[in-house]
């Protein structure tokens, strides 16, 4: 029996997070606002209206194209009309791009376990407008035009994925990148990131591409993985049983977790593309591309490698610290302010700061705790000025107040007592009050030192530096 | 004849308002009285095709809107404020422009009930300049025609010079209204000659500006890459005044030109001395496809038009212009076939939005499914002209023909553009007849799509090239029907074209016969 491999390519749609729509001034907010409230004559396609291009859309799309290493960004790309009838497409055509897209020929190195990676080609990347939404209610078809004209980037990959798991990993990386670049909120549940998958199988070792099926309407990364996996398995069963794969378009039902064939009416279309006469070409000068490239931030995967190499932290730490751009900036700024062991900073950020961020449901940059303040707290713990327990409590206090860590420690008297004369006095007092324990210790029960330290801590309200206290107690008991 | 107030040139109305000699309300009432006298009722869905022997220029009258505007102009004048370039001038708006609160029908059943919530940019600008929007003029359905006979609103407009003849199209109601004194000006549109051809047929001035000179925002689209809104007037100076009020960049139209607008009036009396004006054999050698074989046949111009062309050239030469003969424009003969393809592809797409779902006509009764709703609504709502354009547009833009038709037609268009660019290295403007014949009889051509399209043979080259062109009345043929000559110039030379047009125009002394019948000579 031959061994099969899966061949998967993706067509992703990314909603750009511009303030206004691509061809009119309406707000792009279409999530949970009352139907048909963010609309105007232009985005509802009234007779006589014309589109005018929102330049912010081009800027954001260009950022994505450069981040995807597109080596051909067209100096002049063109809009085209994709003609079809549907009630939520009010003009009866979608303004898209066709044979002359914004960018072609990009790539993405998808990291896989054990240091492997998969080279994903980005065949093309173009700009288009979103359609509205159709809602079925009481046997009626209701149309909400709020989403009409929300800007989208369509990005098509090569048939480069070999498993459902790789597809899921790619979508996680893409979502991370889109948020990192601040060009999309990339929430799949809200339709800000959408993914259709083309799936086929072949015998391992073959080069040709067999008939593929297309999976549509999947609205989470988990569902994409499940849908692709179930389609790969179906195709393998079909071929093993001597059947033939037909070029179906499949619809994923996430309630039941099954794929079903879409009606041919919805899939067979000649879109009669032609160049959109109402819009001028998108001019992208080499200098604009160069400026975009130069302003591109360090990308997450590059930052992840750099964190491991430069700071010597484990890959696991680097992965978590670069999941989100604000957190990685926070980590790096803290390391710089701290000046000491980056792994110690990493521990604080991954354990304590991340917990605070989740509790507050915010970003590291908006937490209220500044990297300099965290560095100061870590420094005080390392210097023994405060205990690590006090340090952890300080995080929240600094976050929610205007005082610096040093001020809080000073004003609230949180500093550890490590002053020898002060501690000696307390220690002498404790020994004096507990002659039985002193005798026992001197009789060889040296394990009692822990009990004496405990007494010191109790006596000082937890502010004694345990290490200094122990040393003083030992010298007094053995002296 | 002594001109009635409704027959005054627009520039004279503005001047007399400023001196206090007239008020906007007086002008408006005089115009409404003229409409009452000559119109014989406007076009209506299921109207009587034979009409009442009137002009039938309008679909909708907007008396109340116009009265409110007239009062505002008069108040501004009383207060000493600038009432605008077109203060108190009654304007008929071709019913292809959306005007807020008024039915915007495109002459089609499918939009008969559509009331726009917004106003087209050219209308916004005209109204801001003090113009009075007196009504919406009839037109060929969605502007698809050259005779105005395809409107769903009946009766269709008559040529004021002969009730048995068409006013031309598609801006037929506009041309008829202006010629008959039912408006001083009209806002028309020209995709392949729809301003110039009816202007020529009705003896008025019509200008197609450079593509993008006037915003298309709010103009219901036909062939988006060719459509040009433009002025229609009884004299050249008025056309310049109207263009001045409308031209310029528009944030709502990406294709509206940002080129600064010139003063179209300051040199309008400057004459043509030293200007070089070209004549081309390619505008006299007319090629029509034979209806049976499809082969191209050559036809000559109507003799009176040929004669008028030579007289016009002489007239310009007498005033000091240099006439350059034999300027070749070899690609213009392919203008109509290329236009067939480009306009149909764009029109079919532009008509997609009329689907019975959001606005406009929806078929009555239950539809089995969505696609039946589409089929019925569009089948019942569109007349034969949109259907023909949809069929052809869908066919030639199909996947299998994508490269063979539309892209080729665009290449032909580029060739025509290059012909003109070469010509304009030698001359300042080209002079040609606007139409191969004067107005044809009602029913004479309608129904023969190809022959009807060839009425635009001489006008469509300027649309392909995107250049400005102005049709000027130069007299009457032997049966008393107006003849128009057009001047075509390089991009954004409207100022010079208007100046040439002013030197060429031959204004008729007498009223058109249909008006005479109703109001006297």
Helices and strands, with pairings:
The complex is a heterodimer of chains A (479) and B (521).
Chain A: E1 4-15, H1 55-67, E2 72-73, E3 76-77, E4 80-83, E5 93-96, E6 103-111, E7 117-129, E8 133-137, E9 140-144, E10 151-157, H2 164-180, E11 193-203, E12 213-218, H3 221-240, E13 249-253, E14 258-261, E15 274-275, E16 282-283, H4 286-295, H5 300-311, H6 315-321, H7 325-338, H8 342-360, H9 371-382, H10 388-399, H11 405-411, H12 420-433, H13 435-442, H14 449-459, H15 466-478
Parallel strand pairs in A: 12-13
Antiparallel strand pairs in A: 1-10, 1-11, 2-6, 3-16, 4-5, 4-15, 6-7, 7-10, 8-9, 11-12, 13-14
Helix pairs in contact in A: 2-3, 5-6, 7-8, 7-9, 9-10, 12-14, 12-15, 14-15
Chain B: H1 10-18, H2 24-38, E1 44-45, E2 58-61, H3 63-78, E3 90-94, H4 121-128, E4 132-137, E5 153-154, H5 172-179, E6 185-190, H6 196-202, E7 205-208, E8 228-233, H7 236-246, E9 276-278, E10 286-289, E11 296-299, H8 303-318, E12 322-324, H9 335-350, H10 370-381, H11 384-396, H12 406-426, E13 429-433, H13 449-453, H14 460-465, E14 469-476, E15 482-488, H15 494-504, H16 513-519
Parallel strand pairs in B: 3-4, 3-6, 9-12, 9-13
Antiparallel strand pairs in B: 1-5, 2-4, 6-8, 7-8, 7-14, 10-11, 13-15, 14-15
Helix pairs in contact in B: 2-3, 5-6, 7-15, 9-11, 9-12
